[in-house]
Write a structure and sequence with these properties.
Mean pLDDT: 94
Shape: elongated
Order of helices and strands: HHHHHHHHHH
CATH class of the largest domain: Mainly Alpha
Strand content: under 5%
Distance between the termini: 64 Å
CATH architecture of the largest domain: Orthogonal Bundle
Largest sheet: none
Oligomer: single chain
Number of strands: 0
Length: about 190
């Protein structure tokens, strides 16, 4: 029996999602076919289609998994920077700076995916919107630590600045947009009630 045939279902699912994450992030969704996922994951085509009957279903599973993985990384990284003395909201930019400097950085997988209009369905858009709402909510919690009387629009404004910085860091292959965004947020927080 081949190793792929003896792989447990949870192992197979993890292998497929890991391969999907690597390939979709590096090449884009439209640049990847199911046989690429098969080859990268070591999961047979039969088992792959048993788990995900269509590429669209695999993309939805990947986006959901990417959200969970990215948010866990992001919150842990921000907490690490806060523990080192960074102001909570500004620690967001420290965490993103770490990400931008990492090998293979290609920007936000959710924004990148949304740009692939021919591959996106309403299900995918719903997952992407939920990811962005969770980011806004987390930024709101960070802002509330030092600015409990901040205006209600602050978390959404922070998210716009964060997403803009991520996109521009990708476009310019530079951390300069992140530095500018951090400075703008620092000035905004200085004017925000504590």
């Amino acid at each position: 029996m081949s190793p792929a045939a003896t792989m447990l279902i949870d192992q197979a699912r993890r292998a497929v999602l890991r391969a999907a994450d690597e390939l979709f992030y590096a090449r884009g969704i439209s640049g990847v076919v199911m046989s690429d996922i098969r080859d990268a994951s070591g999961v047979s085509m039969r088992r792959l289609y048993a788990m995900y009957p269509s590429k669209s279903e695999l993309v939805a599973a990947w986006l959901t998994d990417r959200h969970d993985t990215w948010m866990a990384w992001f919150t842990t990284s921000v907490d690490r920077h806060v523990a080192a003395g960074a102001e909570p909201v500004l620690a967001t930019f420290d965490a993103i700076g770490d990400w931008v400097a990492s090998p293979g950085y290609r920007g936000c997988a959710f924004i990148n995916s949304l740009a692939e209009t021919s591959e996106m369905t309403d299900t995918h858009r719903t997952i992407i919107a939920a990811h962005k709402r969770d980011l806004v909510e987390h930024l709101g919690h960070l802002a509330a630590r030092d600015h409990p009387d901040a205006p209600p629009w602050l978390p959404a404004a922070l998210a716009v600045i964060v997403d803009g910085a991520i996109v521009q860091c990708t476009i310019f292959a530079s951390t300069e947009p992140l530095d500018a965004a951090r400075s703008a947020v620092h000035q905004l927080l200085e004017r925000t009630p504590r």
